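Hi all, long-time lurker, first post. I run a small reading group and we've been trying to get comfortable going from sequence to structure in the token notation. Rather than ask abstract questions, I figured I'd post a concrete chain and ask someone more experienced to write out its structure so we can walk through it together at our next meeting. Sequence below, copied exactly:
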Amino acid sequence: MSIKVIIIDIDGTLTNSSKEITKKTHDALIKAQEMGIKVILASGRTPNGMMDYAKKLDMEKHHGLLVCYNGSRVIDCQSNKILYDHAMSVEDSKAVLKHMKNFKARPIIDKGEYMYVNDVFDNIVKANNKEINILKYESRGNKYLLCEKEDLVEFVDFPLNKILTYGDEEYLKQNYKNMMEPFKDKLNCMFTGPVYFEFTAKGIDKAKALDSVLIPMGYKKEEMIAFGDGHNDISMVNYAGYGIAMANAVSDLKDIADDITLSNEEDGIAHSLYKYIPLLKE
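-- Answer (accepted) --
Happy to help. Here is the structure in token form:
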């Protein structure tokens, strides 16, 4: 069966270590869309952090989709219409934010053009013996302004698609079970990076979002190819008819993938597209 949908994670998959789409991968995705194949970006990122990549790939012109917040929201790039949205309740959001006051894991939430935090100067985390300015990285990379709120619990009176917390790598390893304990049966609680632990609504993931939107459009799983590198990509790589792990992917993803391509530094996406779509020519 021919491929009609290409689904791609962003960080570590679509982009290289410089957060850029290489020319070979860019050109392959443009050619695929010109053949009528739908391109979907599926990421833990917020919509703001995905739009620039969608524009570079001309996804507005070709009716591409964005699967944001690890599957909590789906947006049509052409119309900006929200096709699917599964946020946490205000009650659950407040409960998580209140619980996080007991830990050195600092929450980030977003609304509109702002990222909200308790202290914009509490921004350094340690990972692999390196210090990272997380708030600079997140705000610049996702095109947000930063705003301080002394009490996020009191501030939040709207549903949240995601609560991202950040902390030192070793601290999160030692404390994440206690962080998630009150919510383990009612919310999704997961690592999305060594210094990130996040909360989303129960049952949402990239595969569920794809299934909820694409099947009603008439697409079949067998017509989809999905690329990923992280634990949060396992559901969609397992879901698609052709599930591809990057060479730089975590071992758990490689174990369930149908194939392993080259790394994100070596045009792994383009390599597999030319392999699995015979009519797509270099």
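A couple of things your group might point at:
The chain has a mean pLDDT of 95.
The two ends are 21 Å apart (CA to CA).
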